[in-house]
Write a structure and sequence with these properties.
Elements: E1 4-11, E2 20-25, H1 33-43, E3 47-53, E4 61-66, E5 71-72, H2 76-88, E6 98-103, E7 106-115, E8 118-126, E9 130-132, H3 138-145, H4 149-153, E10 160-163, E11 167-172, H5 176-181, H6 186-191, E12 202-207, E13 217-223, E14 228-231, H7 235-247, E15 259-263, E16 271-279, E17 285-292, E18 294-302
Parallel strand pairs: 2-3, 4-6, 11-12, 13-15
Antiparallel strand pairs: 1-2, 1-18, 3-4, 4-5, 6-7, 7-8, 8-17, 9-10, 10-11, 12-13, 13-14, 15-16, 16-17
Length: 307
């Protein structure tokens, strides 16, 4: 097999060595699922993507997304980062308004914003939210996440499983200090997956305690079941976060279109993720968008010999 070219980007940041790392393999043809999984494990980023020719008439490129442990039907930072990779290589020409990926969840539209010939930001559509109630107690969930019950109960909010394509447990806490103090029991987090009907992807801790200009939520995400202990930026969890905040009246009016999640601070990889929720005339959430920036860090070649 010929060498495989890839790009390394930092996503949900405009600065190198922050945000969430991503490897984008420019041509995944000739690789089966096992080879892709092996390569993703070797790269050892939260996710690695493989670009392939489109298979649907209404998409531009097919993309497969792998964590070190499993394949995902969709994910946020891989979609945004791969968009920037395609702009860097010229597949997406300056001035283009949108691009459509073929993902496991179906065609996924990404809106593009340019600063001259430079892609300035990208925003992906996610599925409308699904809300589910856990079958285990809040105390059990807090214990697995290693957070104090008081830091949760004082919020007056529920623990919920929310999905905009992939499900997450959303666990609200009172303060940034409580979020930062969490040291989850990874084995316990794996064991409670069956108690959530969607078979959650990970647990997402957040607080709406004020944190910097324009920041709506301060967050951390843990997904040991995917081979990811902690993720510095989780776009696929931010759609659910935005929907949760709207559902429970924590964000209203014009602010629904201008939410920001600040993640990865505890890891030394701060990430800024933009969220926009649109409601229809009935008040139902009709559109979920998550976006941000990305920066190229490196280009490389992997010498895959198969087997």
């Amino acid at each position: 097999m010929p060498p495989l070219e890839y790009l390394h980007l930092d996503v949900f940041t405009a600065r190198q060595f922050e945000g969430n790392q991503l490897a984008v393999f420019r041509d995944g043809r000739g690789l089966d699922s096992g080879a892709m999984q092996t390569i993703a494990r070797e790269m050892n980023f939260s996710e690695t993507t493989f670009l392939l020719p489109a298979e649907q008439f209404d998409t531009d490129v097919r993309m497969r997304i792998f964590t070190p442990g499993v394949e995902l039907p969709m994910a946020g930072h891989p979609t945004i980062g791969s968009t920037f990779a395609l702009a860097h290589t010229g597949v997406i020409a300056p001035g283009r308004t949108h691009f459509v990926f073929g993902l496991g969840v179906g065609p996924t539209r990404v809106e593009l914003t340019w600063a001259g010939a430079r892609l300035a930001s990208a925003s992906m559509d996610q599925l409308r939210p699904e809300f589910r109630t856990p079958t285990i107690s809040a105390e059990q969930t807090c214990r697995a996440a290693a957070v104090g019950d008081a830091a949760f109960t004082a919020t007056g909010l529920p623990i919920q499983e929310v999905s905009c394509g992939v499900p997450y447990i959303l666990l609200p806490l009172t303060t940034r200090a409580a979020v930062d103090a969490a040291e989850p029991d990874m084995a316990a987090l794996r064991s409670i997956r069956s108690a959530f009907t969607g078979g959650h992807t990970g647990i997402y801790l957040f607080t709406t305690e004020p944190f910097g200009d324009g920041v709506t939520a301060y967050s951390r995400m843990f997904a040991p079941g995917l081979g990811v202990a902690e993720d510095p930026a989780t776009g696929s969890a931010c759609g659910p976060l935005g929907c949760y905040l709207v559902q429970h009246g924590l964000v209203t009016g014009n602010a629904m279109r201008n939410m920001v999640s600040w993640q990865g601070v505890a890891m030394g990889r701060p990430s800024r993720i933009h969220i926009a929720i649109t409601q229809d005339a009935s008040g139902a959430m009709s559109r979920v968008q998550v976006g941000g920036e990305a920066v190229l860090v490196a280009e490389g070649t992997l010498f895959h010999r198969g087997g």
